[in-house]
Every structure is written in structure tokens, then in C-alpha cells.
Design a protein that fits this description.
Elements (H helix, E strand, L loop, with lengths): L1 H23 L3 H29 L4 H25 L11 H21 L15
Helix pairs in contact: 2-4, 3-4
């Protein structure tokens, strides 16, 4: 009898641990959508940060030309990087490919946001360049 009770308690514990994961279960389409929504949110934040950098340095024509060229080059890099990571639509990723590419895009974009934010902070580092 005691072992039956222990088995029931153990089974209940397993269900309690697994239940949140079961409740979060999604279809691949939903996961693709979530990942691409995250990427879109990161793109919106990137645009906002980039606009702030441009506004903060509006009086420096040379900087503006250089940062615009850098942003154009970074955008091309991001797209090429994603294509290098996922070179074929026939890849082993199958229906998860949109989720994978959007996740990669979101991460690259979030990394770029951090880079751009350095132009919005004051620095006393002699090597900070235009970021100081």
C-alpha cells in the first residue's frame, strides 16, 4: 500500500513539473510567428536607437555620413550572415526555418542596438572616438 501511495505522489509530482511545459506547447507556426515578432520588435528598437544617434550628432555632418554608411553596410552584413547560416531553403531546418532565421535576425539586431547605444553614452576613454 505504501508503495502505491509513493507511486501516486511521484506521478503527481511529474505531472506538476511537466504541466507548465505542456501548457506552453505551441505549433511550429506559432513558434515561427513568435520568433518573427521578436525580430520585428528588435528592428523597431534598432530604428529608434539609430534615429536617436542621428539626432544626438545632428551637427556633425562627417559623422552622419560615416554612420549612415556603417548602418547600410551592417544591414547588408546581417542579411548575408543569415544567408550564410541558413544557405538553403531546402535545409534540414524544414518548417522551423522561419523561426531559426528570425531568431538569428533578432539576435544580430539586438547586438547592433548595443553597438549603436554606445554613441548615446558619454565616455572619457581616449579611444572612444566619436562615441565619447
Amino acid at each position: 500500500m505504501r508503495s502505491v501511495v509513493m507511486m501516486i505522489v511521484l506521478a503527481a509530482a511529474i505531472v506538476a513539473i511537466a504541466m507548465p511545459a505542456l501548457l506552453r506547447a505551441q505549433t511550429q507556426g506559432e513558434m515561427n510567428g513568435d520568433a518573427c515578432n521578436d525580430a520585428a520588435g528588435a528592428d523597431a528598437q534598432l530604428t529608434q536607437t539609430y534615429t536617436q544617434v542621428l539626432a544626438a550628432h545632428a551637427d556633425d555632418e562627417v559623422f552622419l555620413a560615416k554612420i549612415k554608411a556603417a548602418e547600410k553596410a551592417w544591414s547588408a552584413f546581417r542579411d548575408a550572415e543569415i544567408k550564410a547560416v541558413y544557405p538553403s531553403e531546402d535545409s534540414f531546418n524544414g518548417s522551423a526555418l522561419p523561426m531559426c532565421t528570425c531568431t538569428e535576425r533578432a539576435q544580430l539586431t539586438k547586438d547592433r542596438i548595443k553597438q549603436l547605444q554606445s554613441w548615446l553614452k558619454k565616455s572619457e576613454d581616449v579611444c572612444a572616438g566619436s562615441r565619447g
